[in-house]
Amino acid sequence: MTSTLRTEPLRIEGAADPVGTLPILHGISTYAAEGDGIDEEMRRGLAYGAPHSLLPYTRQDGYDRDRTVREVTSVVLENDVLTATFLPGYGGRLWSLVHRPTGRELLHRNRVLQPANLALRDAWLAGGVEWNLGTTGHWPLTCEPLHTARVTAADGTPVLRMFAFERLRRLVLRIDAWLPAGSPVLHVHVEVHNPSAEETPVYWWSNIAVPESADTRVVAPTDHAFHCDYVSSLRRVPFPRPDGADRSYPGRVARAADYFFDLPEGERRWIAALDGTGTGLVQASTDLLRGRKLFCWGTSTGGRHWQEWLSGPDRPYLEIQAGLARTQLEHLPMPAGATWSWTEAYGMLQVDPEAVHGSWERARSATAEALELLLPAGDLDRAAAGAAAFGAPDAVLADGPGWGALEIEAGRLPASPLLPFGRPGAEQQPWRELLATGTLPISDPPAAPVTGGRWRSLLERAPGDWHALYHLGLVLLADGEPDAARAAWQRSLTERRTPWALRSLAHLTGEPRTAADLLVEAHRLRPGLRELAVEALDALLRADRPKEALALIEDLPGATRAHGRIRLAEATAARACGDDDRVRRLLAEGIRVDNMREGEVSLDTLWRAVHPGRPLPPDYDFRMSEG
After folding, report:
1. Cis peptide before 201 (omega within 30 of 0)
2. What is the pLDDT of residue 1?
3. Strand, helix or coil at 565?
4. pLDDT tens, residue by residue, 77-98
5. Residue 183 pLDDT greater than 90, yes or no
6. Contact status, residue 328 vs residue 136, Cβ threshold 8 Å
7. Above 50 in pLDDT, residue 627?
8. Residue 455 dihedral angles phi and psi, to the nearest 5°
């Protein structure tokens, strides 16, 4: 059988695509490098590169858990050994990888498309292989479409090309995937280009979900790892037995945890998850992709509930991952104008089960030997060299957002026939007018945000109306200039009092009462925007004003008041007012927070406060650090 590429509809039960309008004003924190075994290189990476904000991205929290059968576009690569299914509309995710001779699904293929609050922008999907570029966390394009095209290699093999302009770091991403005829592995070549004249912090992790059972063992070429969980700091520990228990069997671990494997120099870069028969997925790469990681949800009630929340019942999974740095808490400096590339391979590995489940040293050596038989290291290097020669696309399969095309028009991104970014769309039109006329047209709600030096200079010269000043404040905040941003938003408010500038000022206000006042005013100006109502309620509760929070809730329409976040705020405010009967009633009726955050314990805290000594219902147990 020759290698083929086709598009086809994928019918799957899923919730509506996530939407959101409010810019993400906060950034991420650097990690305090205080743990055992952290060397100077890692210390620098931990302290470097945290963004001031997640601008220009907006939140994606407008989803629910009411699923219907949907039809989404997939792209399928296939040869006589493997069938690989990609979802270009969801960050280019590799959704499925089936070993054709056995019919075995090598990945955790989710039966549903169900967003949950685990990504930088909120919405995230479990399952498959997710590509992560930008900063610590699930990347901003995880629920966004990528540009998608077909390329033909010199030997006639079809290549799936997906590409994007990542707007937070302003990097160009290109992913080429192909299945040569007869190949036992899927090849994925990744190229990241920094078109800026300045150094840029870079982060990459390939996040691979695989099925989990009690006998699944994760194997990698190391005997140490950097351990991190939800209660302890990062530290270097022996692996797989940091405390006597064998952590290479994640299906037997009670607590959610990360293990970042410390691969020695000179070792081949790989990781595998193998079941009781010694069979499972192996991922290998060229040397630049240095890091490997194991993440498990744990077997506690909270860990099991999280997996059911993401994938439905009886679908346990774990994650094996591969990244540029040793941990996901680090960023690496990418020089101006630089291009980094590496090649990954994914396939089914079969190893002697006695070796896999014997001593750690034997498991490592046997897995490494089996990998060399499946995919000799030299073959992967040759695949990487071949990918460098891939040319321009034969056909465009799908367009992504028009931001890359806009940056080309603005002169900040070079056009290339290898990456046909197409034309800007309606969302980019206000910024095209600014380029053409020097004036940003006023709109309410405001235009979608942008960041970058070109837009800053244009906004600084634009007429000083409320809309341009609001956007200037966003660009200044993204540049790490909060005082200048505050001044721009204050000027915007003198032109017109808008919820957008009020909300932005509240973000920069260190005094809780003032922040609450600003957000309540913002909510009053746009009472139909649920996201603003949630933020106003959160601010009132932080300012210890629960009675005002309850009064605001009383004024909300019934549909808004029934939203899970609003009901949670009502129960929290009632508890602060001493009305435990109201809290118990709300909990008994049911509080379902569709965008419950990873690590959030608000529901179980409320339950325990008003039901001391009573068992915590599984539906309210999202704990990741307790049994």
Report:
1. no
2. 67
3. helix
4. 999 999 999 999 999 999 999 9
5. yes
6. yes
7. no
8. -70, -35
Kind plus residue range of the DSSP H or E element containing 346: strand 339-350
Q: Say which residue the tokens 């520990």 belong to.
A: 237
User: What is the three-class DSSP state of 156?
Assistant: coil
Joined together, the tokens standing for residue 80 give: 């006589």
Answer yes or no: are the C-beta atoms of 483 and 509 closer than 8 Å.
Answer: no
Concatenate the DSSP letters of all residues of 91-152 into one string: TTEEEEEEETTTTEE-S---SEE--EEEETTEEE--SSEEEEESSSSB-TTTTSPPEEEEEE
What CATH number matches the domain at 514-627, 1.10.645, 1.25.40, 2.60.40, 3.90.550?
1.25.40
Q: List, in sequence order, every residue forming a beta bridge with 315; answer none if it has no partner.
A: none
Question: No. of H helices and E strands in the chain?
Answer: 18, 26
Q: Report the pLDDT averaged over residues 388-415.
A: 97
Q: Report in angstroms the alpha-carbon separations of 305 from 24, 63, 310.
A: 28, 19, 9
For the chain, where do the domains classified as CATH 2.70.98.10 start and end? Answer: 4-64+76-387
Instruction: Find the Cα–Cα–Cα–Cα dihedral 76, 314, 272, 319, rounded to 10°.
Output: 80
> Which fold, 438-508?
1.25.40
Helix (H), strand (E), coil (C) string for 44-72? HHHHCCCCCCCCCCECECCCCCCCEEEEE
Q: Which residues contact 323 (CB under 8 A, 6 or more apart)?
A: 203, 204, 205, 206, 289, 290, 291, 292, 293
Cβ burial, residue 1 (10 Å; 0-12/13-18/19+): exposed
Query: Where is average pLDDT lowest: 277-286, 301-310, 386-395?
Result: 301-310
The pLDDT score that the predictor gives to residue 626 is 64
How many alpha carbons lie under 13 Å from residue 532 in its C-beta half-sphere?
25
Under CATH, which number does the domain 4-64+76-387 receive?
2.70.98.10
Token pair, residue 88, equals 């270009």
431 phi and psi angles, rounded to 5 deg: -75, -25
Residues of the chain with CATH 1.25.40: 438-508, 514-627
- Straight-line distance from the first to the last Cα atom of the chain, in angstroms, rounded to the nearest whole number: 50
